[in-house]
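job 3f2a | input accepted
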Amino acid sequence: MDKIVILTGAGVSAESGLGTFRDAGGVWTQYDLEEVATPEGFAKNPGLVHDFYNARRENCKNKAPNAAHDALARLEREFTGDLMLVTQNVDDLHERAGCQNVVHMHGELMRARCALCDHRYDAPLVMGVADPCPACERGPTRPDIVWFGEMPFFMDDIYVALSAADLFVSIGTSGSVYPAAGFVQIADAAGADTLELNLEPSLGISDFAQARQGPATQIVPEWVAEILG
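job 3f2a | predicted structure (229 res):
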């Protein structure tokens, strides 16, 4: 086995205290997504959108990577083949665990970009409506996040990797958000083995050749240990 593509979702960070999209009482349930996670919402009320992501940024900086993040960082360091780690998460816990090459298909909470010139830069902890772009000195500036209705990042690179993979592994995802939910079908069609690691079966579990259930902090380190021998 020379080429592995891994997709991680909110379930990887849940045990670090970052709630998943569907958690009852979680941060997403307290807001209208049309208002805080769409281009239209940002155009209508950028202050509200910045307040939402400022709160998420503050929450994220106080969390720490868990054993699942650590195990994937170990895999990146020690696996001798090609490894692509794709995440739907916007947090930086993979990086803080030591991962060097994370593909953030939905953007990064700790990054910002200019909506005018598309310059990307490290976000301040608190962003505001009047913040100028460091490059063009205009704006508006926004979180470097893929909102609903926008195209995820790096899709061409991801599809190339999936089509060449020997193994595709989905970790901590619900299997309900596209295009990521369709990655398993692309990998399977290209002849890759497929594995789901999840707390409970996802909506797309029938598309996987193998599946294991349990807390990410338990089953991910176990799987990584097996791969590394």
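job 3f2a | Residues 1-18+65-106+152-229 form a domain with the Rossmann fold fold (CATH 3.40.50.1220).
job 3f2a | closed
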